[in-house]
Amino acid sequence: MGAAAGQIKRGRKFDQVLEGAQEVFMRDGFEGASVDDIARAAGVSKATLYSYFPDKRLLFMEVATGQCQRQAEECIQAIDPDLPPEEVLRGSAERMMRFYLSEFGRAVFRIVVAETERFPGLGREFWEAGPAKSRDVLIEYFREANARGKLRVADAELAADQFTELCKVDLHPRLLMGLCRDVSEADRNRVASGAVDMFLARYGR
Amino acid sequence: MGAAAGQIKRGRKFDQVLEGAQEVFMRDGFEGASVDDIARAAGVSKATLYSYFPDKRLLFMEVATGQCQRQAEECIQAIDPDLPPEEVLRGSAERMMRFYLSEFGRAVFRIVVAETERFPGLGREFWEAGPAKSRDVLIEYFREANARGKLRVADAELAADQFTELCKVDLHPRLLMGLCRDVSEADRNRVASGAVDMFLARYGR
DNA sequence: ATGAATATAAACTAATCGGTTTACTTTCGG
DNA sequence: CCGAAAGTAAACCGATTAGTTTATATTCAT
Fold first, then answer.
1. Per residue in B60-105, pLDDT tens?
2. CATH number of the domain within which B30 lies
3. What pLDDT was estimated at residue B2?
4. On chain B, which terminus has fewer CB atoms closer than 10 Å, C or N?
């Protein structure tokens, strides 16, 4: 996937085009973004844009998958299973919230949710690049912590999904629906603590 | 709001137009829906459509707010505080899941998330018509149950948001991202039980 | 039945869109 | 410094869009 994917050509202004497309797609969505806008934002002529990407769809897909990759890096977290569970959970919560609540994370999420019908496979690509990785790490940790007797987790997958969901509490829906523009550090702490407390009440020992 | 809102005219074919618009908007989103499509789906001429609604935006807003009202009815749940908490929670979980996971609920959610930038206020309208009502009912119940000593809930708002979020676990994100088309009864039971168990582990007594 | 209100199909406008073409300029390796 | 490759601006194409108009048909209260 590093060389030439599909019909896409590499070259001097490749990244430039991609950055402009990223900016405009993330702001306006797929339908809302016009190719002229993208070319202007990229500081590139429309002809050049079309010399790299055969059409708008593929350009969008390239942007979207690129974002997914970026997210993957954010999400890969080394968990130290020797730390007390409370600290592991706390760190995980902060990491997940930092992504899900960021402007960037919200934009990607919004686009994936909005366009997943028009672009089959986009949802899965996003999922597997980001959330699934984070999920796997958590599951693995819960299994090990259970075996070691540090936690009592029968269904590690359910537990991982629950913890992830607990990290979104209130803040994520609020931001997604435009009920507020951003969240304070205090809000995050309240939710993160709430998630850890609840998780340990259920699965701690 | 029952008589004449904004510039909108009532008349014989009003509901017919609205139903067609509903169908097409819910399927294609705002940008994706064409007015000709809507008129066709409504079984009405374009001129008639425009005699009721001054433009596409207002028609969309009317549909969206209508959906929010519908959702409100779905969500208003009478909670019997004399029942054991476990049963109250179980009923609440099922009700919320029935909405959030339905094709209808997902379409509304998807549209709200996608268009909330283009239509400021849409998110709030949806929120206050639906989720907020459900939330208030839960909060009220948790306060009373705490006072009665049936639960031990210090922060009723946090608890309500957590329980709501626990009802979305795994299934809601999966559906939103198109990772699966629908969920089985077994999936729902697993998640509902997981939510109730976790909640009671934290706030039960 | 009649006349006013309402609905219709279809043509039309002006704008926008994705994508191509053309004629010209810049970049850059050998 | 030269020539091919790459980039540019702008005009252009065909399709589609929101919204209007026109001329005709239907509905409905009186």
1. 999 998 888 888 887 788 899 999 999 999 999 999 999 999 998 9
2. 1.10.10.60
3. 36
4. N
**Which of A126, A178, A190 lies at the smallest CB-CB distance from B123?**
A178
Question: Is B103 an interface residue toward A (CB < 8 Å)?
Answer: no
pLDDT at site B122: 93
Which segments of B11-73 are extended strands (E)?
Answer: none
Q: How many domains is chain B partitioned into structurally?
A: 2
Which residues have a Cβ under 8 Å from the Cβ of A120 and sit 6 or more positions away? B178
Q: Where are the alpha helices (DSSP H) in B53-184?
A: 56-75, 85-100, 103-115, 122-129, 131-147, 156-166, 171-176
Domain membership flag for residue A65: no
Instruction: Tell me whether residues A165 and B161 touch, CB distance under 8 A.
Output: no
- The C-alpha atoms of residue B112 and residue B100 are separated, in whole angstroms, by 13
Q: Which chain A residue has the Cα nearest residue B177? A: A123
Q: For residue B202, which residues of chain A lie inside 8 Å, CB to CB?
A: 197-198, 201-202
Quick one: A28 and A103 in the same domain?
A: no
B113 shares its domain with B167: yes
pLDDT at A39 over 90: yes
Picking from A117, A124, A197, the nearest residue to B202 by CB comes out as: A197
Which among A112, A177, A195 has the least Cβ separation from residue B112?
A: A177
Asked if A110 reaches chain B (Cβ–Cβ under 8 Å), the answer is yes
The closest of A34, A103, A30, A17 to A60, measured between CA atoms, is A30
B136, B181: one domain: yes
Chain A 2-41 residues in 7 Å CB range of strand D = 11-13
pTM, 2 dp: 0.92
Q: What residues make up the domain containing A40?
A: 1-54
Banded pLDDT at B6 (limits 50, 70, 90): low
Chain D: bases < 7 Å from a protein Cβ: 6-11, 16-23, 28
Q: What are A3's two structure tokens?
A: 């060389």
